[in-house]
Design a protein that fits this description.
By secondary structure, the chain is α/β, with parallel strands linked by helices. It contains 4 helices and 5 strands, in the order βββαβαβαα. It has one domain: YqgF/RNase H-like domain (Nucleotidyltransferase, domain 5). It has a 5-stranded mixed beta sheet with strand order 3-2-1-4-5, sandwiched between helices. The longest helix has 26 residues.
């Protein structure tokens, strides 16, 4: 099993309206929901993510990378690459992209099982997706 460097990791599920954030424990073992941020444009979103990463003393920012199911990259992928570049330009914390395929489907399944509907569902799905992305990243790093 791989040994992760100590310190918190910030997970990001960047949507076009809302962006869910999750944070790991200091051992990099467990992800939990942090918050949702809303920002107008990539620069503003990058600044919000930087602030949350610094406030939580993150050593790494992991952004969900929307790869198409067939492995190709589309406009959503290009947007995430631009967001990562914006964060790198204003922040000293390293940024990495992590495949988020099926994350929203898993989050939706969990919300279906808990009968979370309507506006409450919209409020939590981005956070839950960020938590799943981050937990998948942490698990994959431990397996290396």
């Amino acid at each position: 099993m791989g040994e992760l460097p100590k310190g918190r990791v910030l997970g990001v599920d960047a949507g076009t309206v809302r962006t869910g954030l999750a944070i790991s424990d200091t051992d990099g073992f467990l992800a939990s929901v942090l918050c949702t941020v809303k920002a107008n444009g990539l620069r503003s979103l990058a600044a919000e993510i930087k602030t949350k990463a610094e406030e939580n003393k993150a050593r790494l920012i992991v952004i969900g990378h929307p790869i198409n199911m067939n492995g190709t990259l589309g406009e959503s992928s290009a947007r995430i690459h631009r967001l990562a570049d914006e964060i790198r330009a204003i922040c000293d914390i390293p940024v990495t992209l992590f495949d988020e395929r099926c994350t929203t489907m898993v989050a939706a399944s969990i919300l279906n099982m808990t009968d979370t509907r309507g506006s409450k569902r919209k409020a939590v799905i981005d956070n839950l997706s960020a938590e799943i992305i981050l937990q998948n990243y942490l698990d994959s790093e431990r397996r290396k």
